[in-house]
Amino acid sequence: MVCFILKRKKKLRVVFDCAARFKGTSLNEQLLEGHNMTNTLVGTLPRFREEEIAFMGDFDRMFYKERVRQEDTRFLRFLWWNDGNPFSNVVEFQMMVHLFGTTSSPSCVNFCLRKSAQDWTGHYSDETIKNVLKNFYVDDCLKSVKYVKPAIFLAKDLQRLLGNGGFHLAKWTSNRRQDVNSIPVSERARG
User: How does pLDDT run across 57-72, given as a tens digit for each residue?
Assistant: First the structure.
């Protein structure tokens, strides 16, 4: 596994290249992909365009929210400098969460997303549960509704339900200012 540091909008991000080869193989070649539970873009986008008011939310660090089983973390070891100082000794670490870029992460995270919806069925509206199952494409919620009030309710209900599963749905945006204004500034998309 090779690590890169990307500087993006004044923020450093560590990126692991799980397809990097060492001694003829890569981490991704050693992992099972799992069942593809990601909604298709062809299915998600038409539903997103059905109604007049469109809104989107995005998970904050989706892949880092789901932990890897303790006995599997040894396969996610990597070397890093002590305290991030490249002039210090190299130390061995291991990831405790799923990595963005591993072949297994989408299946694992989508399973957890769907499990959250199933676990909270009966505590949230059928519409909210249906949205978790049908209107997400990878880490983006894509939904359209006829009226502003249901959009506001649904966005808040989705945040509460998915918060129970350890997910943080934020970076909200909409084609209607009234919808966006109901969301706290810290939860809105920037720009």
Answer: 998 888 787 888 899 8
